[in-house]
Amino acid sequence: MVAARTKVVACATVIEEILPLLPDGMTYEVLDFGLHLTPEKLRSKLQETIDTAGVEVDTVILGYGLCSMAVVGLTATACTLVVPRVDDCIAIFLGSYAAYKQQASQEPGTYYLTKGWIEVSDTPFEEYKRLVERYGPERADRMIKLMLKNYTRLAFIDTGQYDQKRYRKYARRTAAQFDLRYEEIPGSTALIKKMLYGPWDDDFVVIQPGETITYADFKTTATTTCNLPDVSLNPLETG
């Protein structure tokens, strides 16, 4: 792999953890985190970015997992695609799919926060502030309870790459405000380092030019919802 012929494409939350480790000469592009809310739009934007990047580089590394199936159907038009074989970015922050699977089995009702998620302010906790302004505190409380109905724990992932004091304080305060049990769990840069430097072993899906990503390529994982709240009912229709 030649760094100058390789490009990283990631959302705003993941790029926060990638940039301190990015090899000299390797380029990157950041996509809007809000695209996760509509997997079809995320897939379309990713394909457009891959097609454009393939003119200039030989390899595109995606800082994404399955992400609600958004990467399934992506075609490596003119370059090699490398994608971590994980459900979503939580496993990237924890360092492996195995670490994520252990957390998910022990504490399935967990909402995860990292520096990146806090920085982009794209969480139900920040949405609550906007709901209060629009609908008032009483209705906003009902909405947030609906969005967080399946969550019991808020876990702050400390990746160790930054001064985490401010973000840890935010996470603690948020957990208390929304009656979630707070825990801090150690993250890991192991998977990010392998993304950027190799080897691209069984932890990755590697797609050659002309090939398309399929769900079978991720057969060791199962689909998840990228740390999104359960909004199977529209909170805006609850009175």
Task: Record the SSE blueprint.
Blueprint (H helix, E strand, L loop, with lengths): L5 E6 H7 L8 E5 L7 H15 L5 E5 L16 E5 L4 H6 L2 H10 L3 E4 L1 H6 L3 H12 L1 H11 L5 E6 L6 H13 L3 E6 L3 H8 L6 E4 L32
Helix pairs in contact: 6-7
Give a verbal description of the structure.
This protein has 239 residues and is α/β, with parallel strands linked by helices. The protein folds into 2 domains: 116 residues; 91 residues, no CATH class. 37% of the residues lie in helices and 17% in strands. The strands form 2 sheets. It has a 5-stranded mixed beta sheet, with helices on both faces. Strands 5-6-7 form a 3-stranded parallel beta sheet. Helix 1 links the parallel strand 1 and strand 2. The longest helix has 15 residues. The C terminus is likely disordered.
Quick structural gist:
By secondary structure, the chain is an alpha/beta fold. It is built from nine helices and eight strands. Strand 1, helix 1 and strand 2 form a beta-alpha-beta unit.
